[in-house]
Each structure stands twice: as structure tokens, then as C-alpha cells.
Amino acid sequence: MNLPQASRSIEHFLHAYAMAPWRAQRQWIGAILLGVIGVGMVAALYLDITSQAAIAGRQIQNMRDDIVAMELVNADLQSQLAQATSSSSMEKRARDLGYEPVKPADLQYLPVPGFVEPQPVILATAGGLRPSAASVAPEYTESLFAWLGRTLEASAENRTEAR
Amino acid sequence: MRSEYNWRSLLIVALLGIFGALVIVQMVRIQNSPEAQVFRAQSALYGRKLETFHPERGAIYDRNGRLLAGSKTVYEIGVDLANARDKQAIAAAVGMVTGKNSENLYNEMENPPEGVRYLVLADFVDTSAAEQLKQVMDSARQMAAPGQGSRLQGIALNAHPQRDYPEGELGSNLLGFVSYEGRGYFGIEEKYNSLLAGNAVQVWVPTDPNRAIELPNMPTGTTLVLTIDRGLQADVEEILGEALSDYGADQGTIVVMDPRNGGILALASSPRMDPNDFGSYGSIYHNASEFDRAVSMPYEPGSVMKVLTMAAALDSGTVVPSTPFMDTGAIQVGGAIIRNWNDEAWGPQDMVGCLQHSLNVCMAWVAERMGADTFYGYMNRFGFGHLTGVDLAGEAAGRLKVPGDSDWYPVDLGTNAFGQGVSVTPMQMLTAASAVPNGGRMVVPHVLSAMVRDGRQYSVPIQYAGSPISPETARTLNEMLAVSLEQESSSALVPGYRVAGKTGTAEIPGPYGYETGATNASFIGWGPVDDPRFMIYVWLERPSTSIWGSETAAPTFSLVAQKAILALNIAPDSVRKEIAAKP
Fold first, then answer.
1. 20 to 30 A from B16, CA-CA: which of A69, A79, B32, B73?
2. DSSP B90-125
3. Nearest to A123 among B225, B227, B230 (CB)
4. Which of 142-161 (B) contact A at CB < 8 A?
5. β B184-185/B456-459 pair status
6. A163 to chain B, minimum CA–CA distance in Å?
7. Reported ipTM
8. What is the pLDDT of residue A131?
9. What end-to-end distance do the CA atoms of chain A give, in Å?
């Protein structure tokens, strides 16, 4: 086969390829498949995020129940401890151990340089802030549409103010 | 051949399309059917649930961090009527652990209020009874036939907090108590009820986990730190109990205050009750003013008032400590004769002698010299007839009649000067007299030292209630009262410490004049004189072994002062002088 003949054959093949009916069919099938895959991916992503959010939400609910239960137990234990160390029970234990109330005449006072008289108890020090629902930014709680609506509203308001 | 394939393909596409369309039509139809409305209503019902939250009520601590009021866990026993399988068995089990009549419980379940699905059978059930019921429920579950529910199915146990006072009766008069409904009554519990809060709240809670963020954040109540010293409080209550017994007094009150800042260190009043058993309130007290006599029960204080009469006289320049007075045993004021406590004449005296021998005649003379305007002006500045502002519920203002009042007579000037014809509370007396050990400045008494909220502690600042007398007057009177106690060799004296104070023995007014042979014995005092750290008020009602304050209230003061000295770590005067003398 000489060169012109080969060139014609290639042109013929390309023309036949361009004119093949299955080729057009494959294009729109590909487009549909692409759409289906896209929708599938979005759906899978949505399902994944939704399920994760639901699991996290359930965990929050459970943890909140646990906190309430633990606070109850904590208060109960504090009360039991206070009962065990109450004035009357401590006095009884001290007397059982052979101790007696001190008499003023038995006391000896020693001057201690730098002694500071006891001050009322400090039960709490300034700590960090407690996280609360109000401190979570709306971007983390609102839907896409709500966010879009809010953003559009905000930009519209900004434009109005600018005028 | 090719057109045949096309036809078949089109048929399949059409069938699938019709099927899809039918599915969509059916979906739309179901979603808009009447049944769908019912399902939507049901889902809305299950989409949220009504829950009762019991936020913890704020705890109450003493100045050293000892818990005075906290919370303990109790249980509500209820039954889900729709799931209750054997109501008789449930009634028997709940009746057994709670002591309730099982027949009544069964009737309650059989005839519940209309629309009620969950019925509370018992509440505030203690932990041991609840544990017993849990064991019975476990046994019933194990005994149940395979595939069948337990006979006790439907019982629900819900834990919630209840106010608990681990110290029992200790400090009950100033703490008050909390009812089943969560409302504070009397003392600190009532005064700071809204701060302590922690009341049960019913809230609709979303069950949808995606709406977990909407769960309400129930803040717990504010924790309070009091100025009370638990150890001293216990000692003072013990001393009061012994004083009532030793002197045969009907009731009594002792208050210990720090005169520098008004912080109440101990407050004992009789009778006391265990606030854990607040149902006993009605059988212990006849009226609300009996709960905390220190703030709620005004009385005629008697000669302790002479401290303030003398303060007014010194401050107004009416007298000086050396002003002479010839006591003839009687004086006429406003047309009435006023006599001394022993109806005797005490001869020549100065103002220290007048205080030392507690001479009514001398005080009436001093008040007359001062004049009604000056005298009542000072009494008003001392706060008589007004509330002190102490942070305890149920404070009474007492009564000070003044010229111009329809029931004031000129003789009242004389009698008021020695504490008769005027009614005050022990807290008012402490507040007024605090000007003397505190350099002329009166402090506002208070029980709250600090509040703890959101992890932060807020201290309560000191408040002053004015300066009715000058620092010079305060110093002079302080010395006069200390000398008068020393010269009298009073039973109020405290070994090793110089104290100042005044006794009071007051007649008790009745419907037909003053009662015979019955008195109110009082003592007000403070120490150490050179640097007052404690101030004590003692009031014994109707002591029977002796009617005199000098023989009942004064020795009680001494005992309380000795305990206060230990609690506050106050070295004897000699040691403190030695330390002060060192360079």
C-alpha cells in the first residue's frame, strides 16, 4: 500500500467512526451515567453525614443523661461524706478514741511570724467558660438552604446600607 | 429485525415508566391520605417527649467548707399503665417497699385520672427502698416464662435529688428547710430561694438525635458559703441547751457576730428541728416567729439597752463618764415613778457606777437630761424600729414608740432608756451595739459570705449601717463597760481576756400589765476589748432558777466567749501585748 492509499484509508476510517450511530448513543449513555454517578455520590455523602450526625446526636443525648446521673451520684456521695464527717459523728469518734475537748487553761499560744488567721474557704477558682448551645455558630447547626437564605439576606441588607 | 428490537425496548421503557409513575402516584396518594395525617400526628407525638428535669439545688457550706445543706438521691416510683401486665402484683410490690396500702395503689391504677398513661405511685422513696424494689423486679424478670414479660413490667423508677442536711438539727434555725415542692422556708433557704433555685422544670425534649443541640441546658443552683463556723455553731447550741436546762428557761437565743464585718459566726435558737424531717414543723412551732427568735421575735430587752442610752448621752455631750449622780432610788418621769431593779437607793454614783449597778433611775435621769428629741434621734440612728437587713427570712422590725405616736407617753422616755416599753430583736441589739466595739460604725449583719456560680466565687462585701456615734464615744463607752464588768466581778468575765458588756433583766408585758416573777434575761458583750473579734448576745426567756440576767445570761456569755476564742484562735491579752511590744 502506497502513502496516498493509506491516507485515504485513515480518512475513511475516521469518517466512518464519526458517522457511527453507536458513538452518539454512547455519548448520551455516558452523560446519563455521569449524572447517575454524581447523584449517587451526593446521596452517599448525604447519607454518611446524616448518619454521622445522628450518631453524634444520640451520643450527646446519652452523655447528657450520663452527666445528669453522675451529678446525682456526686451530690449523693458528697452528702454521705458530710454525714460521716458531721460535727456530732466526729465528736463521737473523737471521744471514742479517748480525746477530750480542749480547755482554755490547757492551751499554749506560740507567736508564729507570718501567721495569717484562717480565711473563709474558697470553693471555686475562676475557671474556663462552659460551652453552651448558644456559643455554637449557626453555620454548624443550620441547613444548606437556611444558610443560603441567611447569606442572601445579609448581602441584601449590606447593599441597602451601602446605598 | 432492528425495528423489532426497537419496539421491544420501547415496550420495556414504557412499562418501567408506568411502574415508576405508579410508584410516585402511590407515594403522593399515601402521603396525602387521611391515614397519613394520623401517622404524622403520632410521629409528632413521639418526636418529642415531656421530661421533668430536677436541677440540683445549690449547696450550702460553712465558712470552712463543711457541707450544711446538700442533695441526696431519692426515687419516684411510677407505672406505665399501658405496659402494666399485672397491676395487683405491682401494687403488692410497691406497697411492700413503700409501706403504702397495696389495695389503694391497685385502685389508683384501675381508676387513673382521664388521659393519664403514666401514674406516680410513690415519690421521695429513699435509696434502700428503691434498691429493694429493683431486686424484686429482677426476681420477677427471672421468674417470667420465656417469651413473656415480667409480672412487674410497667414499673418505672426515676431518680431525682432531694434536699439533705447532713448535720441534722445543727444550724436549723438559720438554714430553714426545703419542702417537697422545692421551695425554701425560713432562714437562708427562703431568703436565697431564687439563687439556690434548682426547681424541677418540665420541658419538651426532642427525641430526634439530629436535634440534640436543642436539649435544654438546666443550670444548677448557686452554691452559698456562709459566715457560720460549724464547730462554734455546735458549741453554742450545746451551751444554749445546757443553759436552758441549768437555769430552767423556757426558750433561748444566742448569736455570735464578728463586729468588724457583721458576719454571723453562730446563731442558736430554741426550739430546733431536724430540717430533714420538715413535717415535724407544725408540732414544734406554734407560729412562724418562733422558728428563728434571733430575727423574728421582738421583745423588751431591759438593761442591755442602757449601753445605747449611755452611748447617746456621751455622744450628745449630755454626760461624761465622771458625771456625778445622786441615786435616791426613785425618779418621776412623765408623772410616773421609776425605781431601780431592787427598789433601793444607791447613793452617789458616776456614769460607770450607773452602768455597773444597772440603775434604772440614773438612766431615766440621763434620758430626761438628753431630751426626747435627742434620745429618739439616736435610737432611730441605731436602727430601732427598722429592719437590720440581715439576710435571713422573716425578720421583724420591733417597735420604738416616738413622740407624736398616739400610744407614746412622756414616761416612755424614762422606761425606754432602760429597755422597757420598746421591743427589739437580738439581731437589732447586736447591730446597734456593734457601733461601740467597731469605732462608732454599725455593721449590717449577714450570714452569706460568698456565692459560687459557674465555677467562680463571688464574695459579699462588708456593709455599714451608718455611724451613730463618734469613734471617741465608742472608745470611752467600750472602756466604761469593761471597767463596770471588772468592778462588778461579773460572771461574764473571761479568764485571760478583757471583755466589755452589759446584763439585762426585763419584765415581760402581758395582757394585764407586766407579769410577776417572770423575766427575760439578756447579756450583750464583746471582746477582746482592745481588738474586738467577737460579739455575743444571749437571751434566756423566763429563767426559773434565777430571774436575773447577771446570774443566768452573763455566765452563759462567758462560756460562749471561751468557745469563740478557741474557734477564732484569739491569743490571751498578755500574749498579744507581748507580741505587739516586740520590735
1. B32
2. HHHHHHHHH---HHHHHHHHHSPPTT--EEEEEEEE
3. B225
4. 159-161
5. unpaired
6. 38
7. 0.81
8. 44
9. 77
Q: Which of A60, A123, A140, A141 to mutate to test the interface with B (most CBs of B within 10 A)?
A: A123
Query: Which residues neighbour B93 within 8 Å (Cβ) at sequence distance 6 or greater?
Result: B133, B136, B137, B140, B152, B155
Partner residues linked to B49 by β-bridges = B205
What single letter denotes the amino acid at residue A161? E
User: Which among B67, B210, B449 has CB closest to A54?
Assistant: B210
Give residue B427's Cα distance to chain centre.
Answer: 14
Beta-sheet pairing, B48-53 with B264-269? unpaired
Better-scored residue on pLDDT, A52 or B199: A52
Measured between CB atoms, does A58 come within 8 Å of chain B?
A: yes
Q: How far apart are CA B301 and CA B502, in angstroms?
A: 11
**Is there a contact between A111 and B230 if contact means CB atoms under 8 Å apart?**
no
Interface test with B, best of A86, A117, A125 (most B CBs within 10 A): A86
Residue in this structure with the C-alpha cell 407586766, named with its chain if needed: B514
Cα within 13 Å of Cα(B334), Cβ side: 16
**Tell me, what's the pLDDT at B440?**
96
A91 touches chain B (CB under 8 A): yes
Task: List the one residue out of B567, B546, B549 whose CA is nearest residue B557.
Answer: B549
What pTM, to 2 d.p., does this model score? Answer: 0.82
For residue B410, whether the previous peptide bond is cis, meaning omega lies within 30 degrees of 0, is no
Cis peptide before B468 (omega within 30 of 0): no
Does residue B566 belong to the interface with chain A, where contact is any CB pair within 8 Å? yes
Q: Please indicate whether, in this complex, the C-beta atoms of B70 and A75 are within 8 angstroms of each other.
A: yes
Q: With an 8 Å Cβ cutoff, are B65 and A121 in contact?
A: yes
| Strand B60-61 relative to strand B223-226, pairing | parallel
